[in-house]
TrEMBL record:
Alphabetized GO MF terms: protein dimerization activity
PANTHER family recorded: EPM2A-INTERACTING PROTEIN 1 (PTHR45913), GENERAL TRANSCRIPTION FACTOR II-I REPEAT DOMAIN-CONTAINING PROTEIN 2-LIKE-RELATED (PTHR45913:SF9)
Protein name: HAT C-terminal dimerisation domain-containing protein
InterPro entries referenced in this protein's UniProt entry, alphabetically: HATC_C_dom
Sequence ranges assigned to domain HAT C-terminal dimerisation in this UniProt record: 224-282
Amino acid sequence: MSVVVKCINQIRSMGLKHWQFRAFLEEIESEYEDVLYFTKVRCLNRGNVLKRFFELRAEVKAFMERDGVAVPVLSDPKWLMDLAFLVDITHELNVLNKKLQGQGQLVSAAYDNVRAFSTKLVLWKAQLSQTNLCHFPACKALVDAGTPFSGEKYVDAIVKLQEEFDHRFADFKTQRATFHIFADPFSFDVQDAPPELQMELIDLQCNSDLKAKFREVSGKADKLGQFLRELPPSFPELSRMFKRTMCLFGSTYLCEKLLSTKNFNKSKYRSRLSDDHLQAILRVSTASSLKPNVAQLWQQGVGKRSHVQKNRSCSSMFFHVQNCSCSEEPFMFFNVYSCSEEQFMFKRTLIRPSLTQTLPPAAPR
C-alpha cells in the first residue's frame, strides 16, 4: 500500500506533472482519466484507490519511466500478485461495508451479512488452496497473462482475516438465538429458546392471526418493527426482548451521517446560520420518516401575506438548501418550523411549484 500511495502522491502532488499524466492517459485513450487520492478517513477509499491503480499499473509504470523515476516493484510479478489479491479482498470488504450501511437497518440483518461474509471466507480459503480464482478477478487476470500463482500464502491471509472477524464479532455469537427469534419467531425451535421465552413462544406460534400479520410484514423493516412493538400484553417477555433487540445499533452509520450533514451545512459560507436552523436541518436530514402536511400549512394562511421582503440572507439560505442532495419536501418542514422573520418567504418559494394541482385555493383576505 505504501508504494501505491507514494506513486499517486508523486503524480498528483505537482500540478504540471498531474496535468501531464492526465494528458498522457487521454493520448493513449485509457479507460480512466486519473488515479484517485488515498485518504484514511473515507472507509471505501482504500479499495477504490487500489482497484484504480491496479487497472492503470501499466500506464503508471510507463509515465514514471518517461519522467525518469524508476519503480522496480511494478515489474515484480510477486508484488503485482500481492497487489491483485489485496484489490480483490478490499473490494469484497467494500461490498460488505455498503451492506452494513443504510438507514433503518436492524442489527439482526447486519449480523446476517457478517455471517455470510464469514462463510465466504471459508469458501475462498478452500478455492485458493486449489488455485481456483473464479472469485478473484484481479488475480485471475495476472494468471491468464502468465504470472505464477501460489495459493498457500494467500490462504494464510484468509485465515488471519477469518480469525479477526471471529474476534471482533464474538459478542454477537452469544446473541445468535435472540437474533433468530427476532427475525422469525414463528419458525424458531422452542427447545432452543431461553426458558423464560418458551411458553410465550409456543402461544405466539399457535396464534393464527399473529402469524398471518407477521407474514404480511416480513421483509419490511419498518412494518416489522411496528408489528413486534404492538404485540398483545399476553407476551411481556417476548415484547421486552424484541424492543431490546431493536434498540441495538448495528453500525455507526447514523452517527457518521449526522456529522457529515453538520460539516456540510455549517461551513464558512454560511456564517449567518443560527443554531436553531442547524438543529432543524440535522433533524430533518436524519429522520426520513418526517413528512410535511403541505395542505394543512396552506390552510393556516401561507398565501395571505405578501412575499416581498428585503432580506437577502433569506434568499442566500434558499440557494444553499437547493444545493443539498435532499428532497424538496423535508426542507418545507424545516423552513416552516424553524424560521421567524423570513418564515413566509421560505414557504412561498418552496411550496409554490406544486400548488397548481395538490393544494386548495387560498382563503380570502
